[in-house]
User: Fold these one by one.
Assistant:
Number 1:
Amino acid sequence: MLSRWAVESKAPRFRHVRGIVFWILCGIALLLIITPALAIVISVLVKAAPALKWSLLTNTTQNVQNPGLQNAILGTLVLSLGVVVVAGPIGILGGIYLAEFAPKRLGGTLRFFSEVLAGVPSIVIGLVAYTALVVALHWGFSVLSAIIALSLLTLPYIVKTTEVSFAQVPRTLREAAIALGLSRITTIRKVLLPPALPGIISGMVIALAISTGETAPLLYTASFSNTNPSAGLFHNPIGYLTYVTYYYVQLPGAQDQALASAAAGVTILLVLLLIFGGRAITARQRKMVARLDV
Amino acid sequence: MILVRRRAGGSSTGPARVARTRTHELTTGDRILQWVSGIAATIPLAGLLFITTILVIWAIPAIIYSGFTVFTSDKFFIGNFYNLNFSSVNGVVAPFGANYGALTFIIGTMATSLIALVLAVPISVGGVLMLSEWIPRQLEGPLSTFLELLAGIPSVVFGFWGLTVFGPFLGAHVYPALSHLGVVLPFFKGSWAYNGQGLLTASLVLTLMIIPIIASTTRQLVKRVPVLASEGALALGMTKYEVVRVVTIPYVRTGIIASALLGWGRALGETIAVLLIIGMANNPPVGIYGTTSTLASTIADELDSALSDGTGMALRAMAMLGLILLVMSLITNLTGRLVVRRISSDALPVGRGV
């Protein structure tokens, strides 16, 4: 390596030209990241803006004259709530185990496979939930199968953020707890949980953002419903926002296109709100942890 | 003082291990929590095993029916449900004329994801280097928000944008110009759909979707490049570009390869965006602009009609496609994560954007 550079340094002007070309290409690369990101958000919001009406919140997609998104928005909320209830406790407990109890090798293995699960394509999770729950267990298109599919999808994120939040609690606090002779469960509840909580919440918020934006795992578990969500976990299809975009954008009518745009606009706003909200919580937590560390 | 701080905020196992009480000192409540949380911690692994097992069990009849033709035939036909005759191979009965060749989808999946990967890696690395070397500190934060923005956009919104804005734009303005390059580079020749639907558009959108995965890892690593080494290189009279080539790139190379593998995994499994943009033709692409379909998008698109198969074989064929996709994404993921595990510990698991 060194000898190559020594040779190249014989032509100083050429070196600078190469540097300039390289940095121009890098600048173009940065533009190729920024421009599309802006273009997508702006063009989707511009397309959605004329379609955003008050009736979107009061009508369902069933309304032929003036279709709205009420059933889809409520459905997305129900599914998100389900993810909080199912994936939340499991993920948080799993994260606590990895941070506080797991022997090193077992912890490493569990952590590794949890992350591999995060890489499984969402349509595969949807397909498995369909064959196992909807067909084999005769649940039908149902709220519960959709919630389980989404929970499997978001679990790795909750586990990871919980584990990291606990691990980031300063050692001094743990040592103080040991010195007080506190049991592990009391240490976790009274000493470690308060500073870790913002991190855990931000993990949940990210899980919510993922489940709000997903479509593939829901197509064959939740199916879709034109009416508002109703009670019942089994044999009960439910609507959700992403489906409206996915389905109506493929229809030719102007009204259908407008509805698809509106749903895309609402989805992107919701998801970005959740993501940046989650980041804000994480940033605050870092400051707080830094203060605690004496 | 500084040393203590660094250890306290350091690796995820460090502080926990130091401060743990020994096992025989656990109270009953501790033991209960240990067991309950231990069970919770195994659920992701159990889920992974469950997914694999279910797919294998469901796919077996379709595998017996198709044999090796899955990989050699590009004819995917779920059969004529209205014909009173049935096709039977190796004792497995399927609707008349059913043929589950997945070659089209495998080609489509590999082509879209590889084009996306080849474009996304240099764009991500170049963009991150620009961000870290030339952009002023005050602007670095706001500009990196665009990465988070790109990571946060849901798949269906990418699909919506690709179908209604980006595809038509490419079809009207970019592809005509690109096809003139066909004189020099023959693979740019070909015809395209007026709304841009096809392989290249899908690949370009996938590129945007995996840029955040590769860029965020690269950014973390670039920040950790030892200052002494790069300052030493500067002191030797190297230009900024040479410092990057001699110090930064070798330092982050492994991480880039690992994140590229993870990004590849994401591109393989991307469903809804690709479904909306690629044109869902049941044949291998004709030229780089041609319409085709991928494994993931076919499962989402065809499962609907697979439901009406009385013999149930179409669903098993879908499970077979899902199994092929799972194996592909597990290979990229396992390799990528084995590499990345050595590098970072606190980052979110990469997979679905965000």
Number 2:
Amino acid sequence: MSAEPVAGTMKLFFREAIARALREEMQADARVILLGQDVGAFGGSYKEFARLQAQFGPARVRDTPVAEAAMVGLGVGAAAAGLRPLVSITYMDFLMLGLDPLVNYAAKARFKTGGQITVPLVVKTTAGARGQGVAHSQCLEAWMMGVPGLAVVAPSTPADAYGLLKAALRHDGPVLYVDHKRLFPTAGEVPLAETVLPLGRAATRRQGRDVTVVSHSFMTRVALEAAERLATEAISCEVIDLRSLAPLDLDTVASSAARTGALLTLEEGQLTCGIGAEIAFQVREQAGPIRTARVGAAPAPVSSNPVLEHAALPDAERVAAAVRRLLDAPPAERP
Amino acid sequence: MARPLRGPGLDSAAGQPTQLLRRMMVIRAFEAALAARPDHGFQLFSAGQEAVAVGLCAALETGDQLLTSGRSIAPALARGLDPGRVMAEILGRVAGPARGKGGRGHLAWPSEGFFGAHAVVGGNLSIAAGVALAFQIEGRRDVVACLFGDGACGAGALHETLNIAALWKLPLVLVCDNNQLSVSTPRSQALAPARLSDLAAPFGIPGATVDGMDVAAVRDAAARFVARARVGDGPALLECVSERFSSHSTATRETRPKDQMAAILARCPIARLAGELQRAGELGSADIAALEGDVAREVALAVAFANASPLPDPAEALTDVG
């Protein structure tokens, strides 16, 4: 990325992109409210809600007790009654406390009422490991991809965080928006003009010929780093950032994989019933036999111990090694 | 008579004793008609608990919203929903308010003040608080009532909801229809508090326990709490101790012995109010018979309406998702 400012954009950190999206949507629509722990004067655990309470008042930006189940339920009920709440769940590990209202009510309300009730709710949470241990590190996106009626997005750049959060706040159904702890210290160019990024569109971050690497969130950066290394070995990687996990932009992934002939999926979560397993299967259903490989977390909890944390998670070297193995493997055969 | 049959400050006809009696009779007859059908599917009946639903709904106004547990037939009819549309929904017919997609456990008709049932025990509590939060933020004077069973009282959902509703003074009336059983587990073996309304005190909100077989007692207690909530004084917890006349559901066997059941059935809230009205000279036996005929006709019409409506096209399995 160039050090020069890009015309028509401004450099923002993730937290600034999130705050901007919320500020614009709250200005435009009085139905948008924010609920969560420490979202008020404190401004959020990553300062991603900084100054929103001062601007919009404590009725619309509300600190809640530590009660994830009720927090999500309140958001769901308020959305069902016509507001457009964003509920902040600090870490994705705690989201499981609030899954009942999200999965059993929000994702089913429109269906079960024959369209009488919709739930325009955003649950925003932060996944990923960064030294905080077994119950503050998990990436559980794959669990949520299989819930009909629930959209799931996970940006890897501040521009996408901004555009996807705005789209999520305008969506008429429930959306799970997932940040990543290691992305908060990063910055990127964000359009100056108001931009809404539609759900369900992947982005090709790097074009290549030999292999398609598909990922999302922080692991997209790991994929790009691996692609840089492999380029020095004359291996050309195409890197796709899913951005949206549900709905899934399968066409972009499948057409790339059909062209390169090899697909590597990369995720920070577990491989068993993971995003990679799902994508690889769907790609083969659509595009036929293609060599595939998966990279993800080791089948173990993620420790706060830095040695053990690193041992459990993918990094650029492991991804590069997996690509080399994949390309050395014989071509896939029709079953 | 220990207390007046007519409620204080309730000017709507729906709150008056004959109407309360009629509503309870419609519910009982509706469920009997449903139970007699071979195609009734999985149902949780309200027989014995009609007074809780009818008493509560007599205290609600048009703009208020009611959310309930999956034991939803009595509260839906008590709220005044058209019995034909409700029967259609329960039987999976497209003339139901949710086109037959919700069924008994998820009956919903928000435009009629019935925000809906939700068949997860305790699952509607925080949802109801969210609806109340929306009303509060929008500056409406409407109140949200949430009806749930004693089975929900051991769940964190109730305690989290009580805390937030009290803290934010939400216009929410929580009504526990305590039928004293969670499927087969007696309330005494599941819940520590002496009275379930004692759960209100730690959160600094009013609580009361009334006889849930006494429709006027339920109506009056609910009206008091609804009035508080409407003027911004915040939530309250009302416990109505009731009796379940049948097993937990159509898929569950009865576990109570016959002699105990006989004593329970003798506490019928409908017979109780009818007897009180007769003794007070407000109704004669001819009036009761006329009422019974009227109710039977209404239920027969509801069944005929539902029967005339088709089941959905299988393509509807994929519509309104998300």
Number 3:
Amino acid sequence: MSKQSREQSRTERAAAVRAAQARKERNRRFALVAGVLVLLGAIVAGGVWYSGGGGKSTTTSDTKSVTLAAGDASLDMGDASAPVKVVIYEDFLCPYCRELETSTRDFLQQNAAKGKVYVEYHPINLLRQYDYSAKAMNAWAAVLTHASPGDALELHNLFYDKQPYEEQSNESLGSIEGWVKDVVGDDSAVMEAIKTQDTSFFAAAQQAMTNDHINSTPTVFLDGKELPNTSGVPQMVTAIENAVQQGTK
Amino acid sequence: MIRWLGVLARLVVGGVWIWAGLAKLPHPDTSVSAVRAYQLLPTGIADTVGQVLPMVEVVIGACLVLGLLIRFSAVVSALLMVAFLIGIISVWSRGIEINCGCFGNGGPNPNASRQYPWEIARDTGLLLASLFLAWRPRTPLALDNLLFPPLESSYETEEDHVEAKS
């Protein structure tokens, strides 16, 4: 073999080795990137699950295990002699009421069932610039008055699960009747009642707002003392949880 | 010099992501409220985004600080920044006054219009830093350098090896 042929052969062999090595390296990198992406995805999923985002409460929570009663424009949950009393003024369209609701729903229901807390839910019509607020409250009043407190709690929870954006709430006006039916079925008394505004219920709710000087939602009274709402819902939730866990008056 | 500028960009952008994510992580319901406050995404999607976003932010931030999959992380970072910029410009143009919720402090804010320009400037700066990293992902002190060493050097080594054997 001439020197030139040997040189050519060596160059070709080196090129083949380089190509094989490049293929091998590409495959290694592809597998590594895929593995790292799967690992990162698993970390994200695990973190979401651990932080509670994957276990949202829904209206399927058991509303039969707790004592419920219709109050004066309110739904009362638990034993009135419980060591802690929580009064919540809320609007079905208020987004931060939704946050308070989803953050405290299971906790309050479970502890009301254990006799540790007594809760009064006072839906009010604060966001009057949106028709949805009044229509949802009227539907809820019809269920509380003509069906049962248990149904009213289920509808209360469902309204927050389905809460539309304020600016787009007119598009959801037609859905309210369907959500009521989802809870009470074809209850003729309820379906008839939702057609006209329950003026006495609205007046009672307005009177309660006036008595307690309510001008924003959510407003929470913990054993008669109003919680500051300027620092955000998480601080309100913490205050409620601490009070119930400590059983303080 | 430009490679060390990349390290600085990684630490700044990654640090901001980690800070933002950790601030939101303990309060998933607040994070959901913050996303919903923009009234942009369909409610179901907004809820999912609110729940997932804090962990995505922490992971992307950690990847940038550690130098893992830098180009990928920088592209995701840039896309998120574009989404945030669209969100802030959108609420500003619609007259909705909210805290951006970027660091877990969402909620109504009557003076939000004064803060929107600063938030837009901040996110634009972070967007530019992310784009710089997507353009020049090779930086010192990065896990990528261990996992994915530059191709040329590894091939040269193999070629030298072959030639030495011949």
